[in-house]
Each structure stands twice: as structure tokens, then as C-alpha cells.
Design brief:
About 20% of the residues are buried. The protein has four helices and 15 strands. Strand 9 and strand 10 form a beta hairpin. A 15-stranded antiparallel β-sheet has the order 1-2-3-4-5-6-7-8-9-10-11-12-13-14-15, with helices on one face. It starts with about 40 loop residues before the first helix and ends in a 5-residue tail after the last helix. With about 290 residues, it is mainly β.
């Protein structure tokens, strides 16, 4: 018997049939080889027994690391239940590509603030409201309701400040910009144009005693041509302002009879030879609104 062969190789014998050359039993899963006659074993078992009894080599299937499956499950898309961050923040709402996208509610643990509204690729974008938790009453106080863009206030919105102050109007990049109305704690109200979070352009400031200023503004101060109505005294000043200070103009009686606290005497008549020329010269000196 040759080493390495499962069965003895029978010598060729003339007159013997193919069946006589085979052993009487064929254990399952074995395969006979004939070195001098390649492929002969396959022809021996025409009934398919050779193929059925041939050993089958099974290679183990490549297993995927578990973290791949965990990572797939962690990918967030569509509506999900509350997802908690490591720092304690939580979000409930819609996702897209593992980013907050659609409708959702975000709660910040550090200050207890909450935002409810639209999201776009992980940032507040669209319409939504932002509220903070009052440490005394333990109730939520609304801070801003309106439009957002790229995680900042943009478009029309209403902001509620401490001391009952309120702004209603346009925003850009998180700052008051455009047309808006601001209600102050002392009862004053400004309505007009805003630029970079301060009155800038044309606007009207109404004071608690109903006196008001209408005219130009710059950096939050009265600047340029404008009118100040002293309704409590029945007077009107029309002139030029610079950094909240009136530089030149004309003061006249205006509704003095109906005024609640008029001056004792009316304004006397101007006796200058050329009052209009003097005023025009002064206005040219101080008016830089055209620059």
C-alpha cells in the first residue's frame, strides 16, 4: 500500500471488469484516485454516487465586525424618538443623514432652554420658537418666535426681553435689521429702520408723554434732518441733529392751544434780516445725511 492513498491501487489485470477493480465498500465521503488514469473515478460512478459522496469543503463566512451593525443602527434618518447627547442635551424629531432635519424639539441641559420648530442639516432653519426656563417660577418664558436661517434669527420675528421690553420686526444674521418696532420698559416706542441691531435710517421715537421725534437715525442716535414734536408744550422743532444733539433749526408754536402744559408766552417773531439764509448756511454745515 502506498502511503498517502486512502485505498490500495490495484494493478491493471487483463480480463478484469471495472467493477472488479473497485473495493467492495465505499465509505461515504471518500474519493478514489487513479494516478495512471486521470478522471477515471468520475466515470466509475455513472449513477452519481461519486459526486454525492465527494467531500465538500466549507469555508467560514467572513464575519462583519459588530461595530458596523451598531453604526448602521445609530445612523439617524426620519422621525426618531428622543436622542440624548453626551452633555445631557436631548432632541426629539426628524433626521436626515444623521443631522437634525425637519420638525424637531431641542432641549439644552446647561440652561434649560428649548427650541421647537424647523431644522435644516443640523441647524435651526425655518419657523420656530426659543424659550428659557425661569429659575424662580420653573416655567418656560418665550424669548423669540419667528424665522431662522443658518441657526440665526433671520426674517420677521418677535423677541421678548427682560423688563417687559419687546421687539417686533425684521432680523438678519441674528441682529435687528430692516423695519421693526421696539417697545421699551419706560413706555417709549421706536418704529422705523434698524441696522446692525440699532436704529439706523428713518424712524420715529415716541416718548411716554406722547412727545415724539421723526427723522434720521445713525448708530442708534438721532442724526440728520428731523422733527421733534413737543406736544405737551405745543411746540415743534425742525432742524438738523448730530449724535442725538440738535445743531440748528426752527422752533415754532404747534398746537399750543390744545397742549396740556403750554408755555407762558408764545414764541416771538424772528427779527433777523435773512433768517432763511442763516438757517441754510447752518444746515449745510451740520447736515451730512447725503454723504
Amino acid at each position: 500500500m502506498e502511503k498517502g492513498l486512502p485505498f490500495p491501487v490495484l494493478p491493471k489485470t487483463s480480463g478484469r471488469s471495472k467493477d472488479q477493480c473497485l473495493p467492495q465498500t465505499r465509505p461515504a465521503g471518500t474519493y478514489l484516485t487513479f494516478p495512471n488514469r486521470p478522471g477515471y473515478a468520475a466515470s466509475l460512478f455513472s449513477d452519481g454516487a461519486a459526486a454525492n459522496n465527494m467531500p465538500i469543503v466549507k469555508y467560514p463566512r467572513a464575519t462583519e465586525p459588530l461595530w458596523h451593525e451598531w453604526d448602521r443602527k445609530a445612523q439617524k434618518c426620519g422621525l426618531r424618538h428622543t436622542v440624548y447627547s453626551v452633555n445631557g442635551d436631548q432632541y426629539t424629531g426628524e433626521w436626515l443623514g444623521n443631522l437634525k432635519h425637519g420638525k424637531g424639539i431641542q432641549v439644552w441641559k446647561r440652561n434649560g432652554a428649548i427650541y421647537s420648530g424647523d431644522w435644516k442639516f443640523g441647524k435651526r432653519d425655518g419657523y420656530g420658537s426659543y424659550s428659557i426656563l425661569d429659575p424662580v417660577t420653573k416655567e418656560y418664558k418665550k424669548v423669540y418666535t419667528g424665522w431662522w436661517k443658518n441657526d440665526k434669527k433671520c426674517g420677521y420675528g418677535v423677541t421678548f426681553y427682560p423688563s417687559a421690553e419687546r421687539y417686533e420686526g425684521e432680523w438678519s444674521g441674528g441682529l435687528r435689521s430692516g423695519w421693526g418696532r421696539m417697545y421699551y420698559w419706560d413706555g417709549s416706542m421706536y418704529e422705523g429702520q434698524w441696522l446692525e441691531d440699532r436704529p439706523g435710517g428713518q424712524g420715529m421715537l415716541r416718548l411716554p408723554n406722547e412727545n415724539r421725534y421723526e427723522g434720521g437715525w445713525k448708530d442708534g442716535k438721532k442724526h440728520g434732518p428731523g422733527k421733534f414734536f413737543y406736544l405737551d408744550k405745543g411746540q415743534l422743532f425742525e432742524g438738523i441733529w448730530a449724535a442725538d444733539i440738535p445743531k440748528c433749526g426752527i422752533l415754532i408754536d404747534f398746537g399750543r392751544v390744545e397742549a396740556p402744559a403750554p408755555t407762558q408766552y408764545p414764541i416771538p417773531k424772528i427779527e433777523l434780516a435773512d433768517p432763511d439764509g442763516v438757517l441754510a448756511e447752518a444746515q449745510a454745515m451740520f447736515d451730512d445725511s447725503q454723504n
